[in-house]
């Protein structure tokens, strides 16, 4: 798509005000956060929340993250415990999502997809915060991609995937972090890591102590399914290029032979690699190659979350 669709607008004050009206009227708005673009609707409106599931083709059992301006707003919809509060003080607004027990509120039951918990996050992205203020209510928003596909880090990714089915897309350029938020739940007061994400495990563990792994009792339904799938096959831990492959490189030493090479970070910086990951996967995929070879990324800091996404992208398709 080379023309700018009418519903894609630069996220200036007028566009954000309009987006707030659309949310209040039950419509769908795609908006940038510091992590990825979200597909937002009024979290208190059942019909609006249902339309998110419909637009994404998202399974009804996969609950949504509710976005709020701050901890005070989050405490109105879920029960915080002392550790969650401490982590919110350290990382909010920011890329950390908490799964906590629902309070009895006007929040749509659909956001929980049948669970008695709600995932909440106060994003730090300026446009996201302004939109929350304009809408004046919590906004339910999964990543703005068709279910099972790569998350969007540019407004254009959203426009390409959804065409005119969204009422408005707020464009604020590339998102800064490029990976979705880290999701934490609790087993009693023990913290459980439900999804690796844009805040590194080590940074959370400095405050929370060791994070338990998700299990059958406390888990994230969205993590069970095959996800982040490009059209091309993905080959992990590649140190060379096979015929017909394009290359997702990492670091200064890059093998030759690929028809197309994109480097996540030529200096080997995992943060830069995280910010580039989804856009580069999309770009390599768009070239129509049969297979993408991905070089190894070190399992430190955000490298752990990058490798998680790459493994899912490489998993056999459901
Ligand atoms: O950075 C992000 O988190 C982005 C931006 C838009 O905020 N959002 C995002 O949403 O990545 P989504 O829907 O693509 O991923 C939400 C994840 C899913 O794995 C979902 O299963 C999990 O959070 N989740 C949501 N509510 C949950 C709940 N009540 N219990 C367990 N897991 C939950
Ligand atoms: Mg998603």
Please write out the topology:
Blueprint: E1 8-10, H1 13-24, E2 29-32, E3 37-42, H2 46-56, E4 65-67, H3 71-77, H4 82-91, E5 96-101, E6 117-121, H5 126-135, E7 139-140, H6 155-162, E8 168-171, E9 182-187, E10 190-195, H7 201-208, E11 212-213, E12 233-235, E13 245-249, E14 261-263, H8 270-286, E15 291-294, H9 303-314
Parallel strand pairs: 1-8, 2-8, 4-6, 5-9, 10-11, 12-15, 13-14, 13-15
Antiparallel strand pairs: 2-3, 3-7, 4-7, 5-6, 9-10
Helix pairs in contact: 1-5
Bound molecules: threonylcarbamoyladenylate (TXA) and magnesium ion.
Q: What value does the average pLDDT take?
A: 94
Bound molecules: threonylcarbamoyladenylate, magnesium ion
Structural class: alpha/beta
Please state roughly what percent of the residues sit in beta strands, choosing from under 5%, 5-15%, 15-25%, 25-35%, 35-45% or over 45%: 15-25%
Distance between the termini: 28 Å
Let me know the CATH homologous superfamily of the largest domain.
DHBP synthase
The coarse overall form would be globular
Radius of gyration: 19 Å
Tell me the domain tally: 2
Query: What does the largest sheet look like?
Result: 11 strands, mixed
